[in-house]
Amino acid sequence: MAAANPYKQILSEIRAKRFAPVYILSGEEPYYIDLIADALQEYVVAEEERDFNLHLYYGQDADMETMINTAWQYPVMADRKLVMLREAQAMPSARTQLDKLEVYLKKPSPTTVLVVHFNGEALRDTSKLVKAAKAAKGVVYISPKTRDYELPRLLADYCKDHAVTLEPKASDMLCRNIGTNLKHLFGEVEKLRLSLPESDHISITADMVEANTGISKKYNSYELRSAILRRDYEGCMRIAAYYAANPNAPESRTETIAPVIFNTFADLLQAHYLKDKSSESLRVALNLKVRAAIDEMQNGLRNYNAWSCLRAIHAIRNYDCATKGIESAQPRPALLFELIYKLFTN
User: Fold this and answer.
1) Is the pLDDT reported for residue 177 higher than 50?
2) Cβ(41)–Cβ(54) under 8 Å?
3) CA-CA distance, 68 to 273, in Å (whole number)?
4) For position 58, which CATH number holds?
5) Are residues 68 and 14 in the same domain?
6) Where in the sequence is the domain holding 42, given as residue range(s)?
7) DSSP codes of every residue in 99-141
């Protein structure tokens, strides 16, 4: 099995019970690492054989010598055994400790599947562990940190795999208000799917998202971005007033609001310096998926010049610091009202 397989291919091989001798799973996005590790735990050893052939270790308490010895032992009345180290990053001197597995990987047991589950900065290709795993024809999977701009594609991919159609506005509401926590994001879709009558294909609308998640269809970060781009001061203030009156709503969190406003002006600034500002150029450069988003960006270009964008970004950074208590004791709602005023008067 190739070392750089995407997660879907790895899962397909696991479900077909075509196992590699070792799986090294690492990176800053835990969702896909957990998905692969959970599949291995489900498929490598049959449920009735797990008492003697499923060996789970956790980083904080793991001992490499014990793991290696266990991996070399034969399975008990079964075809194979699974030796899995979860949360390996929790070990003291984790990367140095993991390199000790090189000894085992030079002569791995043909009846053992060894798994290392490591959350955080990916294990380096130059490490003894990774080199040995590749030499043993194992799987080395790196799950990079998820970026905001990747969310619509990842969510669409998840929905396609689960026979769900997600209305564009519903997708935007979920992505912008939940952010890059994929477990939470996909979990909300799953809750929506399970709340609906069984069907071969399910459609989820913005109204359903609002009714079932508490995310407002009218007063969300998508609408705030839209109001900023069309320079609708009153609209922005209405949304800010909603946030002030509903501080516990998902869309009212500062960590949701600040990135949306910052990315709005960062996109505008980038667009100002494009030689070609046509719809197609904006679509490609800013990864805009729908016509409405392109139209809004063109409105923004007319409403804010490059210097306005730079001053706005400076104001947003000050707002972000102030919400963290840096050189400010004002309540967060007041800080947002002040920011919006500055965005429209700079």
Assistant:
1) yes
2) yes
3) 56
4) 3.40.50.300
5) yes
6) 7-143
7) GGGHHHHTS--TTEEEEEEEESSPPPTTSHHHHHHHHTT-EEE
